[in-house]
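Bumping with the actual sequence this time:
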Amino acid sequence: MIFLGEDFNRSTKQMIKVMMVIYGIIALALIIRFSYIATVHSITGHDLLTYSDHLEEEVLKADRGKIFDRNGSMLAINVEAYTLQAILDTSKDHYVKDKELTAKTLSGILACDEEELRKYLNKPYLQVEFAKCGRINLLQKLQIEETSLPGMIFTKRKERFYPNDRFASHTLGLVSIDELDEMSGILGIEQSMNDELDGVNGYKRFKRDSKGRPLPTDEYKIKEPIDGNNVYLTLDSTMQLFVEEALTKAYEDYGSKELIAVVADAKSGAIYAIGNRPTFNPNQRDIKGFYNNAFQLPYEPGSIMKPYVYAAAMEEGVYQGDHVYHTGRINVYGHTIHDWNWDKEANTGGWGPITLDVGLMKSSNVGIATILEDYLDLDIYLEYMKAFGFGRSTNMNLPNEKSGILPGVDQPFSILTSGFGQGMTSTPIQHIKAFSSFINDGNMVTPYIVSHVMTTKGNLVRQHEPTYTESPISKETANKMLDLLVEVVNNEEAVAGKYRLDSFTVAGKTGTAQIAEEGRYLEDEYYYSFIGTAPSNNPRLIVYVSARQVGENSPTSDMFKDIMEKSLIYLGDFEQNNVPIEVKGITIDDYTDHNVLLVEQELTSLGIDVLILGNGNRVVNQSIKKNGHVSIGGKLILLTEGNDYRMLDLTGWALRDVVSLANLLELDVNYTGHGIVYRQSIYPDTVFKEGDSLTVYLNDNNR
């Protein structure tokens, strides 16, 4: 055994101590080095942050396309709004400290009660949203900020806005907005044209450093979003306003259950206006009925069908207008058909013996039965109904159009009663199409509502052209029918005299239809309708009106006359029958490069409210384009070549006029409230430039 002794043990201990010191120095050096790297993010001049493997992608939102009327007035646009969230994480400096106070305060601002808000605030999350309650506008955001409630954060988003509120609401439609703030059409044009209006989102891909800063690497990539296309409708805002006003008055004065009005160009089929009552405000989503009754509610039309029996008989060469028949009642197929004025208790009615021509003027059911019994085979008439477009949709640019129902070939009595509008169903749009054959030499024109589609850069995507479809009757028959329909309204023996206009000659036909529910007809409740065209010597418009009404007091004649006369005057038909008409609307010319003072003088003399922006002498742009129209007292904004643009006083303006101004100047417009302007973010006479943001505050009371 070998003993190393104390010297060896002492030496070993010293060596261990030295090694421990060396290891300690190395460890300390490593700690210092790693601390340095963590602080400066660099090794020998190389930035370590550039070696991050964290690749991120940020969505670049595409804007949904806008909807315009035929004159370029905005009907649906996108505006800025906000989503409210609450921070509940107590480790943050800025969090909700008093949930009870927060719920109580927010309940006075948001469309939610205190209890519902309290449920959100008591959820076991670090941060919460308030679902629909948290979708707020700028005014609500400002109100919340004024409360100084801690823990409130706001995320900017886009919201769909309809400048005219209750205005062609069922036609324009609605959008839904999902949790990613993506819009999708769920009604009307918003739905049927969703693929055109919907844009394509882009993205931004990049790496971030530990401080969240994007890194300029080769992997940094941007794909720009593609905004949705803009859709231009055939709707005319002025004529739509005539329709809305007439419907509102009838709805309030007569207590009607349902009202429909349609205005169409008699030659092209372009739909200028469609209105319904009840209606809704798409900005408030106070919707009660989702159907656009003009094309989604087929019903038994009543006597408005009678002209097609007469036209079919004429076309077949079997009609004898001077044939005399006995009115009152007639027995066919084991059933008794009565004229509408038959008194069951007195067992009498009709008008005695009259001719078939007079029968249409009187709207005689027995006259229709006589034609279909003695002159025109039922199977032939059924084919004519199909040729006139009944029983199938018109294929216009609106979703879920209904086709109605025709009787089968094995239902002879139903075919016969369909001649006066029972035992079949149809829609107002189908009647617009069928009636157009009497105006266009026997050719039917397909109704349409989308004029054209353009990109946001102004490139034309597609243009709709008028489409003439079948010709169920000849030019000769069409002319005879139009003459007969003039008599139906204007002859002294006619029962439709209340639809006459003093200034224009109307051709048309009334309808009164019983309403079938649960297999029986309702007592004392009817669909009253009228379809007519004017001026009869050169038809410009077809107007269809109908009302679901209890009792015999119908508003349809008031509606028709108000809409037709105002619309014809607006379009420039100022005289017929040697009767001068007061001009209530002005067609706008192109004033580009004209002297602004001379233009102002000319238009002011016509009763137009002319507003000038800029300090130049010549016009470079205008709010209403050439061939557009403005009513007396309406606003026209002229932009001059000067660059000193000072904001106008917008107090008392309607929102649609503000949008027109913003569109002209390419301003980013936002709004809060409803009604007319009482405050604006860019004060009057303040200098502004294109692209600035303008917020207007609206109030029904003009406070």
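The tokens above came from a reply further down the thread. The chain has 19 helices and 37 strands.
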